[in-house]
Write a structure and sequence with these properties.
Number of domains of chain A: 1
CATH class of chain A: Alpha Beta
Number of strands of chain B: 2
CATH topology of chain A: Purple Acid Phosphatase, chain A, domain 2
Largest sheet of chain A: 6 strands, mixed
Number of helices of chain A: 10
Strand content of chain B: under 5%
Oligomer: heterodimer
Structural class of chain B: mainly alpha
Strand content of chain A: 15-25%
């Protein structure tokens, strides 16, 4: 916790715009290094679900969520080094949706990188997305951290290539929740081989940050809060001292620690999902560490949505979730406990009861 | 005199309302000028008394509480204009103008925060600011006011009677409490809408107004923020929303303005001064108070009671007529219609697809929110002014 506070203070001090950092509707993620000169920040926007109605008409609320996140990210002081977009830019993967989303994101004043979401993928298997944003999986190094981007929302080849008469139907089937016709997400053999090679070059002391759309852990299969080959990915990451996985898709705050790997989710700009435990129709494994987020006012159109500001400062991620019209949340890596911990709701007794109805 | 009669009416009404609740048959609601209002919230540490209200009335109208002796509360909150000034921006000392439109005092008692950006929690806090604002009263501090109320024989007598204080023990808090008490007496309901909706008199609204009311709660989406309940209607949620007014003029400039503002504030800058003297910073709205990005360009939902009497409209007085206001909302939070929607617009604001006839009906409904006592006061004042002109 001291770790978060110190890092956050550092952020505030350098911000000049003193109060800005404490009031963003965002999660502030920090990777702290012993050498503070290496500290840096990046922003994380995810799950915009831009949806075309017809022609040039798009669902206004999803547009506004993304437009607001972009405008707010542009207000950040200090400036983030780059922005990640965490996937599901589109709702049904069409060129007009991806174009419209890309146009909104083009207002960002920073270098922006992209993660593939299933809503971007299953119409043309990422062909148009690649034209706009580049490869579906890749890695890059930034100020001593090795960043890896995976396409974690692929599935079994038979389902993808042989099951559906049309691409449109394939997209719709994968977009549904609790859909028996759907199929579990996975990274897949091709990317696992690539990942193995990519990691071979990296010293075990280098902090690793993995961006995926789905959680690289298994939480709830019915909504694909799930990656089928999660254990295999985790095994590849196991030799490294500090590993963080940041994922979208779940539209809610989650965090977990599995061995050396810290997991943190990011919020959506479009809408929040309820926690599976409030809704589970199938077995679910919401991480024990996670304290569900209260929803302050579901009538408020941006309730429980937001985006992320990530401050990288000793190789672990710390997130501050600052929620519009709700109580701010901070989830940071606790060095002593060796897991992510909520700054306020730590012990079971001090936790807020999750919202089960409104 | 006119004011006094309004006042007396309000005070009587306060007690009348209490009686109405207990025994409606003996006190016909038609005679209740507070019809449609909830009980006036009175702070426990500042109970209403007729003497305190009268003292507040006197303070409210005292122009000596400004650097050149020309500006009182009533300068910008004049009963002739339903406690506004009818101007886009109010005029302070030496003809200086601020950045915001003077909101009416009528029913301000019901707001859960004061000023367009809610920077003061109550009327007591609000009343202390204008005399020392550089473009309003222009005083360097409250000392000149205290000097007057501590030495003026009438004030000395009144403060002793009302608060039991004099000399050094008489502080600005007492002055503020008296003014706030007076303002809490400026409450008024009993509009045609109240008689129609609360009292059930179906003849109280005309056909266009009835259609307008339906639009108000339906396609127009007005009621989402300008709230109405079964038995009362304040026409405000006391919250803050970016509705695309003012902010549109500074869209590209928001990053610079927001960080410059926060820096100034962090260095001890006074919010009240900054927002009333710097037009561009003023447009940051509620952000100036909370520092929250969600509050950029957001302003308090004003009550719509007596709205027909309080033109021009919006926090910056930029819309001259009620029709312009409805068209602004119909456009989805932009004026003119083809302007760019601002990035921070509240999500509830969206194009309404109202027809010209529907827009007119909504305007007619808004005219049904006028309390008779202010309709009369304002009309009489207007006639008098017209008379002056013809001399």
């Amino acid at each position: 916790m001291y770790h978060i506070n110190r890092s956050r203070r550092h952020f505030l001090q350098t911000s000049g715009a003193l109060a800005l950092g404490s009031t963003l509707p965002i999660s502030l993620v920090e990777l702290a290094f012993a050498d503070e000169k290496q500290n840096f920040t990046f922003a994380y926007i995810s799950d915009a679900h831009i949806q075309q109605i017809k022609g040039n008409r798009f669902v206004r609320n999803w547009d506004r969520g993304l437009i607001r996140a972009v405008a707010e990210a542009n207000l950040l002081t200090p400036k983030p080094d780059f922005v990640m977009f965490g996937g599901d830019l589109a709702q049904l993967g069409s060129a007009p949706e991806l174009d419209h989303g890309a146009e909104i994101l083009s207002a960002l004043k920073y270098k922006t990188r992209y993660v593939m979401g299933e809503h971007d993928y299953y119409l043309d298997l990422g062909a148009y997305w690649e034209k706009l944003f580049g490869p579906q999986y890749y890695s890059f190094d930034h100020k001593g951290v090795h960043f890896i981007v995976l396409n974690s929302i692929r599935t079994y080849d038979d389902w993808t290539y042989h099951r559906w008469p049309t691409a449109e139907q394939r997209m719709l089937e994968m977009a549904g929740l609790d859909n028996p016709n759907s199929s579990p997400f996975m990274v897949g053999e091709e990317q696992r081989q690539w990942l193995k090679k990519d990691l071979a070059k990296i010293p075990k002391t280098t902090p690793i940050v993995v961006f995926s759309h789905s959680p690289l852990q298994k939480i709830y299969k019915g909504w694909n809060f799930w990656t089928e080959d999660a254990e295999q990915i985790q095994a590849l990451l196991k030799p490294f001292n500090k590993v963080s996985v940041i994922y979208g898709h779940v539209h809610q705050i989650q965090y977990n620690q599995i061995g050396n790997i810290s997991f943190n989710s990011v919020m959506a700009t479009a809408w929040p999902w309820p926690y599976p435990q409030a809704y589970a129709q199938a077995e679910q494994y919401l991480p024990k560490l996670t304290v569900p987020m209260n929803r302050s006012d579901p009538f408020f159109e941006r309730d429980a949505t937001g985006w992320q500001f990530i401050n990288v400062a000793n190789g672990h991620v710390d997130l501050n979730y600052l929620l519009p019209e709700n109580t701010d949340r901070s989830v940071g890596f606790d060095k002593a406990a060796k897991k992510p911990v909520d700054a306020v709701y730590q012990s079971e007794g001090a936790r807020i009861p999750p919202q089960s109805h409104f | 005199m006119r004011l006094l009669s309004v006042l007396t009416l309000s005070i009587t009404a306060l007690f009348a309302q209490a009686q109405t609740t207990a025994a409606p048959e003996t006190n016909p609601p038609a005679a209740n000028p507070l019809l449609g209002l909830p009980p006036v919230p009175i702070p426990a540490d500042n109970p209403q008394t007729p003497a305190k209200i009268a003292l507040g009335d006197k303070l409210f109208h005292d122009a000596r509480f400004s650097i050149d002796g020309t500006v009182s509360c009533a300068t910008c909150h004049s009963e002739k204009h339903a406690f506004t000034d009818g101007k886009q921006f109010s005029t302070g000392h030496h003809g200086l103008t601020g950045t915001r439109n003077a909101p009416t005092v009528v029913n301000a008692a019901f707001y859960t925060s004061q000023f367009w950006d809610g920077r003061e929690p109550d009327l007591e806090g609000q009343s202390k600011q204008p005399p020392v604002n550089p473009v309003e009263g222009g005083l360097a501090n409250h000392e000149p006011i205290l000097q007057i109320v501590r030495t003026d024989p009438d004030y000395k007598k009144a403060f002793t009677e009302v608060f039991g204080v004099a000399d050094a023990k008489l502080t600005m808090d007492h002055v503020a409490k008296a003014i706030a008490s007076f303002e809490r007496s400026i409450v008024s309901g009993n509009s045609p809408f109240d008689r129609y909706y609360i009292q059930g008199d179906k003849r109280a609204l005309n056909a266009a107004q009835v259609r307008g009311f339906q639009l108000f709660i339906d396609q127009g989406r007005c009621v989402s923020c300008h709230t109405i309940e079964n038995d009362q209607a304040l026409f405000t949620d006391s919250k803050f929303h970016n509705i695309g007014i003012g902010i549109n003029a500074i869209q590209g400039d928001v990053p610079r303005l927001a960080s410059a503002f926060l820096e100034a504030k962090a260095k001890g800058g006074d919010v009240d001064q900054i927002v009333l003297t710097d037009k561009k910073s003023s447009e940051l709205g509620r952000f100036a108070v909370t520092d929250k990005m969600t509050a950029i360009g957001a302003f308090k939902t004003p009550t719509l009671r007596n709205i027909d009497l309080t033109a021009p409209y919006m926090h910056d007085g930029s819309l001259k007529t009620l029709k312009e206001v409805v068209i602004h909302y119909n456009n989805g939070g932009v004026t003119p219609a083809d302007a760019k929607v601002n990035d921070f617009l509240s999500g509830g604001i969206r194009p309404l697809n109202l027809t010209e006839a529907q827009i007119n009906d909504l305007v007619e409904f808004l005219k049904a929110l006028t309390s008779p006592q202010f309709a009369q006061t304002v009309t009489a004042a207007a006639q008098q002014e017209t008379g002056h002109v013809s001399h």
